[in-house]
Specification:
Length: 111
Amino acid sequence: MENYIRKQFSENFKRIRKSRKLSQEEVAERSNMSLSYISTVETGIANPTLSTAEKLAQGLGVDVQDLFAPLNGKMEAEEMRKRIKYIVDGIDAKGIHSMYNAVLTVFKPGR
């Protein structure tokens, strides 16, 4: 579970940093942390304490809970498209058929 949370945190951190058009250097400066530490956060190597997570959130200009949000919780549409494509590219014809039927069931075209 710890690895999942760390991965979620690091992906959220990187997504938020990029969406705010901040460099790693800018976030490091704003968080009062080293550039190398920011890099380890983004790669999922670092395991920040809650106190450090608060400083990182402050450096990004977000609430700390945004860094812990579920990966599918506050994702931008373009990021969702990329993830859906990644999933679709990895499944066989039977899986594609099942996915297609599920999409039709949920969205019911023609309404």
